[in-house]
User: Fold Alanine--glyoxylate aminotransferase from Candidula unifasciata.
Amino acid sequence: RAWAPTVSQPPESLLKPLTVPHKLLMGAGPSNCSPRVLAAGKVPMLGHRQPETIEIMDEVQKGLRYLFQTHNEWTFAISATGNGAMEATVVNLLEPGETALVCANGMWGHRFAGMVEQNDCVAKIIVRPFGEVFNIEEIEKGLREHKPSIVFVVYGESSAGTVQPLEGIGELCHRYNALLVVDAVAILGGAPLFTDDWDIDVIYGATQKCMSAPPSLSPITFSQRARDKIASRKKPIRSYYFNAPAIADHWGCDGRSRGFHHTEMVTNVYMLRESLAIFAEEGLEKVWKSHRDCAQLLHQGLEHLGLEFLKVRNPCVTTVIVPDGVSRKDVSDYAMRHYRIDIPGGVPDMVDKVWRIGIMGYNSKAENIKLTLKAFSEALSSVQKKST
Ligand code: PMP
Assistant:
């Protein structure tokens, strides 16, 4: 056989220019990136050991401490989306055989429990129906019964649109010798959060929601208690990529020379830096207020349209019930076709029962809410007319 491999043809589709239309992303994330964040994606590439990159990584850490309202040294961004931060939490905090008490009032608690079990640990799940949150008493009951090493709660449950009140849970967990883990993926930056004051041990977010940066990095912070638990492990952490002490070292958290863990997502770090700079310039209180004000405007508008929605004061995700006889998809399609607005349905088992409207970061502006309401109102009358 002649040794003459021929090169296959390049794909035709790649010979056309890249085209991505502008859409207003009013779902539960990702949100539209702020132009300032996008501009940071175009700055020159540098290696992650260049002094300029290291300085930017330091700025990112300071910005994240501000965003999380913490003094934790171990505050950095994991090179992964929110699911990666979730997995990192499990593999670092738990050793095989240990128990996690998982509060599930939507899909994310079940996702976390699945990861716990995949790691040969025990997940004791307490469930609350869609749209409800947990009270201190039931968490205390779970702590007493199951003696878990960690307790998991979701601060902003994006599948249901609830906000879990966090005050008091951390202190309670510590009384029972457990650590408190909080998923803040869908709410970090959009609602008040006080990691230190609320005694949270590990909390993580993601860049693509209220931080209006591309999906890629997950901010995370570890309390001293969490670090002590990791340091006292009897068995090694079962992950190279999500090994928190190594990533902390990579970010220079302990002030020593930085170890090499992986090639940092430098461009995304620049973009994250700009997202954090916006929070620093505007101030957290102002950003939280803009989310709250937009949510109020949205809720008034929805009431005016006669739509039912979950009134659980989540400023970042509002779950609107699809009225009887209305096709969820037709309304979403109308908003996309006429206004280029993305108003998606629910998570897989709720997909046509609800719309989820996100108010996140750069998108939390009155003009976006008004446009969304206009699209909704027109879409509803068009869809209802069609069906009569
Ligand atoms: N937790 C919550 C509350 C979320 O909303 C999401 C994403 N929608 C995740 C975790 C997972 O994050 P990602 O999709 O960035 O991996």
